[in-house]
Amino acid sequence: MSPEPLKPITLMGANASGKTEIAVELARRLGGEIISADSKQTYKFMEAGTAKPPGAWTDTPDGRAYLVYGIPYHLVDTLDPRASYDAGTFTRDAREVMTKIKARGRTPIMAGGTGMYIQAFWNGLDELPPANPAMREKLAALAESGGREALHAELAAIDPQAALTIPAGNIQRVIRAIEITRLAGRPVSQIWSGKFFNALPAHEGKFVFLKWQKDLLAERVKRRTAARFDEWADETRALLAKGYPEDCPGLKTLGYPQMMDFLAGRLSKSDAVRVITAASMAYAKRQNTWFARYRNALRIDLEKYQDYDPAAIAEKIIAS
Questions:
Q1: Which of 12, 53, 169, 261 could form a disulfide with 266 if both were Cys (CB 3.0 to 4.6 A apart)?
Q2: Inter-residue contact 77 to 52 (CB < 8 Å)
Q3: Which of 108, 104, 123 is nearest to 11 (CA)?
Q4: What domain range is 270 assigned to?
């Protein structure tokens, strides 16, 4: 008999934090099912480069499910690499999955590092114009030819307030802000309600932030990149052989552009590992900044390798 289901648990942290292992431990103890909040693991045919948990699609009484150590792991391995996926779509899909998990009397455990997905799910999104691919392509070309600062200057010209809020380095958010402003006919800063940045609703769920010491996380990222490099190269080569274009959404995710540079001879293996590690750590810094603002989340600091004990951490989360 499964334990009494608890309120949903949301496990957050930077890439390579070990969220999957802890989520699995929680699911085992609570009779739970896991919902991935990772924008990369949604894609099919992409395992090594996304650290997708090893599992298999299996027929269950509730339909086909991706099982990881026998535990249903939702919203992974479903999307074609040519397709786009966003926070609004994730929110819709995750709500449907969470409703079904609760109906089965099980505990939903959301785990991932895509902060915008988690924030959108719990706090909602403003009603905004849909994406305009042609406009996005032109704006991306501007960033490519003129640099990030040129793109940011474009935003500053039409919405100075938004430009103060969004850093030039966050190209995707800059592009989206310009896109919304142009499509809506008024500055995006006037459209934002602010609800997106509200504190997470602790009365609805339990929130946990895994925070690794920087040097230890960098070593974990480097080791994982090196250990899976050959498999990752084969995976990327296979995707290209299937006809997926280099600029499709799946192959634009972190690490895959550098892997394509390696396959094309533009980077050595050691340089590719170094560049991917650096890009991963830059992303981790943004993730940690995002999650650190959730003051009502249980923060678990990992200052040495011995601090990472998935079973002990799972018990601490349950007891909190």
A1: 261
A2: yes
A3: 108
A4: 216-284
CA distance linking residue 205 with residue 6, whole number of Å:
9
Q: What angle do CA 260, 265, 268 make, to 5 degrees?
A: 90
Helix then strand then coil, % of the chain, to nearest 5:
50, 15, 35
209-250 confidence digits (pLDDT tens): 999 999 999 999 999 999 999 999 999 999 999 999 998 999
The answer on 298 and 257 residing in a single domain is no
Determine, yes or no, domain membership for 176: yes
Q: Token pair for residue 53?
A: 């948990």
Compute φ and ψ for 201, nearest 5 degrees: -80, 90
Please report which helix (H) or strand (E) contains residue 249, including its range: none
Question: Position of tokens 């800059």?
Answer: 174
* Domain membership flag for residue 208: yes
Query: Per the structure block, which two tokens stand in for 286?
Result: 């943004």
182, 135 Cβ separation under 8 angstroms = yes
Strands 298-302, 206-212: pairing kind: parallel
Cβ atoms within 10 A of the Cβ of 315, count?
14
Same-domain status, 277 and 295? no
120 & 73 share domain: yes
Pair (238, 138) in one structural domain: no
Are 120 and 152 found together in one domain? no
Strand 63-68, strand 56-60: pairing: antiparallel
Q: What is the pLDDT of residues 84-111, one digit of tens each?
A: 888 889 999 999 999 999 999 999 999 9
CB-based contact 119:91 (threshold 8 Å): no
pTM, entire model: 0.85
Shared domain check, 246 and 227: yes
Q: How many residues does the chain have?
A: 320
Residues 259 and 147 in one domain: no
* 51 domain residue, yes or no: yes
4 inside domain: no
User: Residue 114's closest CA among 290, 299, 257?
Assistant: 290
State the DSSP code for 197.
G
Asked if residue 27 lies in contact with residue 71, where contact means CB atoms within 8 angstroms, the answer is yes
Tally the domains of the chain.
3
